Amino acid sequence: MEYKYAQEATTKTLELLSIDSPTGFTAKASEWVKNAFSELGYSAELTKKGGVLVDFGGKNQDDALMLCAHTDTLGGMVAEIKGNGRLRLTALGGMRADNGETENVRIYTRDNKVYEGTLQLCNASVHVNRGYSDAKRSFDTTEVVIDEDVSSSDAVKALGIQVGDIVAFDPRSKVTESGYIKSRFLDDKLSVGILLGFAKYMKDKSLIPERRIYAHITVYEEVGHGGAASVPAGVTEVISVDMGCVGDGLTCTEKQVSICAKDSGGPYSYEVVGKLIEAAKKTEADYAVDVYPAYGSDVEATLSAGFDVRHGLIGAGVYASHGYERSHVDGVYNTLKVIEGYIF
Questions:
Q1: Fewer CB within 10 Å: N-end or C-end of the chain?
Q2: How far is CA 4 from CA 181, 201, 329, in A?
Q3: Separation between Cα atoms, residue 49 and residue 70, nearest integer Å
Q4: CA distance to 6, 164, 271, per residue, from 185 (Å)
């Protein structure tokens, strides 16, 4: 596995990050994902839920493997148009007001207009608000200031903005010269890029796996039911390719691939975790095995939906999860190597 496939995966990640896709508002991102896999020559279809199911081929259809990643992200929805012409939001997924404060946003209306704004603390001027530092940050104490000349609810409604409109936060994506990838929503668009990088690797090398391989790019992971459907017949194992946690009490860094042994939903398949470790050793991937204290993945939704499969979870190390996240191209490369070792 050459390093160039990690760089390819990073490039594809940046392209996908440029498409806003808060959970429940993913059609454009899914279409991009479908086309990206199709352009590599793989069969890719939209599911009824709006995800993308990809068939990588393979010989043994009775012992198939499915790799999951998700393209839905955190975001907001307009919950109230306030009398001062500003917007109160409700979170989509685990978006936090204290993390999104001062971030630029885009408001998508039902009639396909897009307006810009910023999430601010109510009464955000430090020189006016003596309680600025002490104010608790929540979506009840923050508001979107729309970048239009509006100061009443009627003026906002005249723009076409209404309750239920989607609010997307600017990802602010960049890759540094030293290889660090910084952006909101690396969870989990980085993993979608990784699967695209792996697909290109297989296509370039004309590789046909011994077992049938599928990829499922889900769209409701951030609200807990992304992986609850669309498991093809013959699948015996499902591995979620999601972010690897980086933080106190864990050993993984942004340059490594993380293999999760247990998260808040319980242990992953002992057999699958063992095989992932062996795959990492076989390909000399730099890896860590960790227990995530506050995490849930697509494959747990798959099990909860009643599918009789073994499950696992890996991902490139990501710091500052659900915030302004950071990973590294080396972490992407090590994740690709584990996937390669597991399949081939």
A1: C
A2: 16, 9, 10
A3: 13
A4: 18, 22, 30
Q: Map residue 246 onto helix, strand or coil.
A: strand
Distances 102 to 4, 105, 167, 169 between C-alpha atoms, Å: 36, 9, 14, 10
Active-site annotation holder among 15, 45, 103, 221:
221
pLDDT for the residue 291: 98
Could you identify the residue written with the tokens 């998260």?
A: 263
CA dist 167 and 59 (Å) reads 44
Asked if residues 105 and 168 have their Cβ atoms less than 8 Å apart, the reply is yes
Q: Is the pTM of this model over 0.85?
A: yes
Virtual CA dihedral for 228, 232, 236, 238, nearest 10 degrees?
A: -50
pLDDT digits (tens, 9 = 90+) for 79-121: 999 999 999 999 999 999 999 999 999 999 999 999 999 999 9
Q: Which amino acid is at 228?
A: A
Find where tokens 């807990």 sit. Answer: 224
Let me know if 221 is a catalytic residue: yes
141/269 Cα distance (integer angstroms): 43
According to DSSP H, which parts of the chain are helical?
Answer: 4-17, 27-39, 97-100, 153-158, 186-205, 270-282, 298-304, 329-343
Residue 18 backbone zone (phi > 0: left; psi -120 to 50: alpha; other: beta): alpha
